[in-house]
Structure formats: structure tokens, C-alpha cells
Amino acid sequence: METYIRPCGGARLLAALAAASLLAASPCASHATRLYVPMGTQIQHAELVVIAEAGPREVRPPDVSGNWYASMNIHFKEVLKGKPELAGAKIVLRLQGDSAEARVPPEWPCVGLVFASGWEEDPGRALREAYPKPRDVEQLRVLVKVYALPTERARLLALWDLYTQGKLERRQLFDDFGQMREPANFQIVVDIYPRLDDDGRFHAIRLLGAMGDRRGLPFLLDALAAPDTRRSQKAARLLAAYFPGCPGVTEGFRKAFDREHLCYMAATYLVKRYPKDPRYRAAIERYMKSWPTIDYAGKLLDEGQKGRGTELLFEVIEDEDAKAIDRVLAARKALDVGSDLDRIRKGMLPVLKAGVLSDQYVLCDWSVELLRALHHPDCLAPLIESLSHDTKHFKYPERLREATFAIVESGPAARARATDRLLEMIQGLGRPGATRFREHPNFVNNTHVYFVALSWLGDEKAYEAAERVVAERTARFLRPVRPLMGIGSRADDGEYLLTVLQENPNLPRIATEWLVIRLGELREPKAAGLLCALFGDHTGWPIQNTLSPALIRIGGPEVIRAMTGLLRHEKHNIRREAMKVLYGVQREEMLPLLRQMLKEKDLGLKRQACEYLGRVGKLGDLDLVLPLSDFWKADRSVQGPAANAVAKIRERYDYDVNGPIRARDG
Fold it and tell me: Rounded to the nearest 10 degrees, what angle do helices 341-355 and 380-387 cross at?
């Protein structure tokens, strides 16, 4: 009965997502890649809910962007919510998707359809979900009646009755309890708690903790002492975060300290209140030592113990029996804290040479990044080798960009060697059956990447050589990058790269991305204006992977002004990324603006403002975010992040619900 909505850019939750429910065999329907949306939520926000018959479907093959389209004839049989007179109506749905491999199954005799507002103008775009399974169609009928009941209490009791009859999923029940607005209905949760099984009580504890209502304290404290380890651990986390210092909490943690699975959490809570009791600090240290070495090292580094943390990282880096991915992760962390590059290189070079040839794309990408960061002649050969690595993860081209930039930074001789290797590889791409150039939408947008790399590494002669060896079908990806040939010889000249970007607005997307990323790496201040303009226009290529990081690196007043100006943009994804850039540039200097966002209407995004306040907010900000964390009165979309911000500020400043934590003698 639940919906899983796959996140996608561009149009709002395109009808493709609804089509994914209809097209049950499609990869789009994978629960692993879609977000949970309960049926009840869909119904409550719907303008029209119908039971319909789906007639013949016509599917067009994917276009060059990988989009597929399906047209479906729909006959409304029953109207469950909306205008009753629409029963018998017939419409045509035109659905768009982003999976080139979607298939149309045999027609469903009966399907439940949920439409948002605007369905009359564009039913395909307004289609929120389709429920083809008979049990879901019947569930839809029942829940539409439940949500038509006049009071919140009546609806919740009806849902509980369905749950006890086995006609409602637990997740749907607790989602509705999580949407309560009337404080008196808290008693319903109190009444049903004893009737729940262990799993149900676990979900109830999660709900009570998130609500932050002190009437839930007895149940949380009961769960803390319960033999069920999962429930007691969840209660410990919730009590420490949202109820520190409330009556009975400290006493509950003192008892929990003697339980093995709660000892660490109890110690971290108690050590601030009883700093003279050596048991708590000793317990924390003991448990940290039991963690994986990388995690222990990270914790020490977070606490400012750079020497001990770094040496632990080198234990992993220099351990030949450790997993390659663990050694690479340790090396990345060691680089972040400015460790000895020569020591990292000597310990890691064999691992990185193998890593760049791995089919594990994370290991491959990280290995290339490390080889570039080490900036040593010994790293050149594996970087060149990585250019022609035939990885099945070709749709992640970051590896090739990092390798190309690293080779460019190594000088003309390195570029010449790499160009020869790249030309050898390109010559093989023209052969029949070459994997990278098969006609497959997932590959089309990235096919330019090898020729973009060639433009950074080679020159006009390299272009002519490539043109001679590639097939005509492949040459169409080579010609658009001709204006870039030889750009690598001036890769350190930010003004030159900016001019290239300005004079070539029709470059392949990936070529433009490389220019933007490099301008960010060079921190070219003169690029700020153009990149901010691209950011505001948002042509569709990924802001978060290119423009945002570049603008954060460039920084400066022009970027701050431009991003601040986008905080009222009509598209919330633009606002979100503008806030990300501002936070990346300013950090604590952004505090006045974050506070303004929480006070003003339609400025930035309050949810994200709470998130950033949790990271950098001061004690005085508790007065601002506490009202926003009120479960019963606050905007529900902001309440959760505000409660998290309150918890983080209190933790950072050693505060609890009563104010400063007053340490007691052990």
C-alpha cells in the first residue's frame, strides 16, 4: 500500500514515477531507489482518487536523453474522492520516464489512481501514484473513507481498528500518529502502547522521542530499562538527544551504565554530569578502542588528538593485510589532516596502482584522487593507465577527469605520453561492438568524455589523429570539442579558461562541467559572475556536482551577493544549493542570515536553515529554534530539523532542558 517515489531532477515527480507503479517490471519500480510515501499521505493531498480501467498502451523508444514515453487510455469506473460526475470519463495519460528499459506489462483490469491538482490540464504530470494490485485497490477504498471522517480522533481510532484487524500496515499507522495536531490525541498512543508487540513498541518509542512531548517520558524510560536491546538502545539515543536533564533521565542512564549494550551511550551522557567519576571516561575510551581503527582514529581527530589519530590511520595505511578500500579511506583521512605525503605514497602506491584498475568504482575514483593529491612522478604511470581502463562503471566519469587534470599538472611530457595512450584506446572504440559507444541512453551523455580528455591532453595533431581512426558514428562526439584542443597547456590560466567558457556556450555539457570545476580549483575570482549567472539560470546540469563546489572555492563578496539574491528563487532546489554555497563560503558568518530565514516568510528554506543552525548556532539560538521544534504547534516540515538543531546546540554547549549542565561530584 505504500508508494516509493524515485528522486529525479526537472519536472515534479513526473508521471514516470507513477508509471513505475503501473509498469511493475520496470527498473524504475525498484524499492531500493525510491522514497517511501504512505498511501494515506497520497490520499490526503489528492484532488482526485479513482478506480479505473487502463486500456491499450503505446510506448515510444527512448530519445537521446534516455527519456521514454507511454500513452495510456484510462476509463474512470469509480470516483472515491473528487467530483462524482467524473465516473465514466475517459482520458489519455501521457507518461514520461527516465528508464530506457521500461517495459509495458499486460493491461491491468483495475487500477487505483491518485491525482494532484491540475490533472485536468495535464493528467500525466498530475498523476501521483497508481495502485495496480487488487489488495491495494481495496485498501484505497477503505482509506479514502477513513480520511473523510470529520475529526482527527475519529480517523486515528479507525486506523487503529483496521490495524488490529490486520488490514493496515504498521508503517501507515505510525505515519498517521506522527501527523497528529491535537494534543489530546496523545492519549490514544498511551492507550494502545500496552497492546503492541515488541516491534510495535519500538516504532511507538521512535514516535514518542521525535514528538518531544514530556508525557512520553515514562514510556521512554520504561523502554530504556526493557530487555529488548533494540528498543532500549533507541530509547537511550532519544532520551539523550531530546530529553537531557528531564526528571528520571539521569537516574535511568546511571542504571543503564551497568548494561553492556548501553554502557557507552550512558557513559557519554553521564561523563558531563559526573566528571570526577573515572568509570565513565574509562568506559568511553574502552569502547572507542573496540571500534574499527579508522573510526577510532576519526573520533580522536574530532577531539583534537591529531598525533594519536594520525598514527592510527598510518597503522591501516601500512597494514598489507588490510582491505584496499580501508587503506584508501585511511589515506584520504590522513591527507585531510595534512599528514606526510611521502609516507602515504610509500605505504599506498601498490594499492593505488591496483585500485585504478578496479571495477569497484569508489575504490577506482578514490585511488585516482589520491594519486593526483600525492603529486609525485611515481604516480604518473598508474594515472595514464587509468585513462584506458575498461570499467563497467563508465557512467561515472569523475575518475577520468581527475586523472586528466593530474596528468595536465605533471607537465608537457606527461601530456604527450597520456595522449598517445588515449589515442590507442580511442582507436579501439571505433571497432564494432565497442562497449562504450553502443547506442544506449545511459552512455550517450558521457560518450564525449574521452574526447574532452583528449582536448585537455592533446593538440590539433592529436585531434586529427583521432578523427582518422574513429568511425563516423563516433566522430559526432569528437567534433563538438574541437574548440578546446590544447586547453591543457594553459590549464593554470584561469582568465584563459574563463574566456573559453564564455566564447563556447554550446559545448557538450560534460566539457562545460570540466571548465567550471577547473575554474573552481584555480579559485578564479573573475569567473564568479559567469558561474553565478549559470547557477541562477540552471540549464539542467547538476548544480550540486559542479557549480556549487566551484563557487564555494571561489567565494568572495560577489558570490555571497549573488547567492543571497537567489534565496527567494521560485525553484526550491536553487534556494537549497544557494544556501549550500553560502554556508560553504561563510560558515559561522552566515548565522545572521540563517536567523533571518527563520523569522521571515519566503526567504531561503527554513528546514535547511535549522540544519545549518544545528552545526554553527549559538546558545542564544535556542530561543529561536525551540518554538519551531514544538510537535503540536510548529510547521511539521520544520519541526524535526528544529528539534535536531536544539539537540545539537545543547550537546555542543553542555546544556540540557534546564540550562547549563551542572557537574556533580563523582
Answer: 30
Contacts of residue 401, defined as CB under 8 A and 6 or more positions apart, other chains included, come to 449, 453, 514, 517
Q: Which residues on adjacent β-strands are paired with residue 75?
A: 53, 90
Strands ordered across the beta sheet of 68-81: 90-97, 68-81, 48-60, 111-115, 127-131
The residue whose grid cell reads 605514497 is: 345
**What is the rounded CA–CA span in Å between residue 480 and residue 466?**
13
Residue 508 has phi, psi (to 5 degrees) of: -55, 150
Render pLDDT for 416-427 as a digit per residue (tens, 0 to 9). Answer: 999 999 888 787
CA atoms of 193 and 187, how far apart (whole Å): 10
Quote the CA–CA distance of 438 and 446 in Å, as a whole number: 12
Counting every residue written for the chain, the total comes to 666
- Neighbour tally for 110: CB within 10 Å: 15
For 469, counting Cβ atoms within 10 Å of its Cβ (0-12 exposed, 13-18 middle, 19+ buried), the class is middle
Separation CA 619–CA 623 (nearest Å): 8
Q: How far apart are CA 105 and CA 130, in angstroms?
A: 14
Q: What is the pLDDT of residues 589-627, one digit of tens each?
A: 999 999 999 999 999 999 999 999 999 999 999 999 999
State the cell numbers at 407. Answer: 596528468
Q: Tell me the pLDDT band of 33, cut-offs 50, 70 and 90.
A: very low
Asked whether residue 10 carries a pLDDT value surpassing 70, the answer given is no
- Write out the three cell numbers for 658: 534546564
Q: Out of 129-143, 155-169, 458-472, 550-564, which region has the weakest mean confidence (pLDDT)?
A: 458-472
Question: What is the residue whose three cell numbers read 491491468?
Answer: 108
CA 558 – CA 317 distance, rounded (Å): 42
- Residue 279 Cα distances to 249, 266, 367, angstroms: 19, 11, 42
Query: What gap in Å lies between CA 495 and CA 501, rounded to an integer?
Result: 10
- Read off the pLDDT of each residue in 523-549 and give the average, rounded to a whole number: 81
Contacts for 82 with CB less than 8 Å, ≥ 6 apart: 46, 47, 48, 49, 50, 115
Q: According to the model, what pLDDT value does residue 506 have? A: 85
Question: Which residues share a beta bridge with 35?
Answer: 5
β-strands 111-115, 127-131 pairing: antiparallel
β-pairing, 659-660 vs 655-656, is antiparallel
Q: What is the DSSP string of 477-498?
A: HHGGGGGGTTGGGGTT-HHHHH
Tell me the pTM. Answer: 0.84
- Of 38, 39, 24, nearest to 140 by C-alpha is 39
Give yes or no for residue 297 having a pLDDT over 70. Answer: yes
